[in-house]
C-alpha cells in the first residue's frame, strides 16, 4: 500500500471527525500486514479496544522495557484477557537486573542514556518490526503530546515508509475519558518510561 504525500493529506482531511473504528476498518481493508504497538501507558486501552473490535487477529506488539510498574503489568494482563489481544511480547536481550548492576537508569545528560534507550526500547522494537514487516502500523499518537507528534496527523509515514494510523490523533484526554466510559474500559495512570525522563519528551520510536 503506497500513498503519496498529497493523497495522505487529502485522506487526513476526510478522516478528521470520523469514528476511529471506521478509520481502522479502512486501513485494514487497504493493508496486508497490519500491527498495533502498545506499551500499556495511560489511554492505550482506547486503541487496543478499537482495533480489537475490527479484528482480533492483528498482532499487538508489546515492547516491554522491563521497568514497568506492578500496576501497569496488572493492567496489561487484564486488557490482554478482556480484549483477547493477539499479543506478541518483545523484551530487551539483557534483563533489567543485569542492566541495573552495570549502568542503572542513566539520566538524560548521561552519555550512556542513548545506549540505554537502544537496549530497552529501540532494539526490541526494530526486532519486532523486522519480524512482522508491517505495511500498516496502528498507534495511539495524539496531537499535543510532543512537538514531533504535533507535526503528524491521523495518517503519516514512518521513516521506513510504513503507514502509521493514529485514529485518536485529534482526541484530548476528556474525549478519551468519554470513550472509555462508553465502553466501560479501565485506564491506568501509574506508568513509568525509563527512557523519557520528561513527560513531553519523544520516546524515540517515532523519530
UniProtKB/TrEMBL annotation:
<dbReference type="Pfam" id="PF01507">
    <property type="entry name" value="PAPS_reduct"/>
</dbReference>
<feature type="domain" description="Phosphoadenosine phosphosulphate reductase">
    <location>
        <begin position="34"/>
        <end position="187"/>
    </location>
</feature>
<dbReference type="InterPro" id="IPR014729">
    <property type="entry name" value="Rossmann-like_a/b/a_fold"/>
</dbReference>
<comment type="pathway">
    <text>Sulfur metabolism; hydrogen sulfide biosynthesis; sulfite from sulfate.</text>
</comment>
<protein>
    <submittedName>
        <fullName>Phosphoadenosine phosphosulfate reductase family protein</fullName>
    </submittedName>
</protein>
<comment type="similarity">
    <text>Belongs to the PAPS reductase family. CysH subfamily.</text>
</comment>
<dbReference type="InterPro" id="IPR002500">
    <property type="entry name" value="PAPS_reduct_dom"/>
</dbReference>
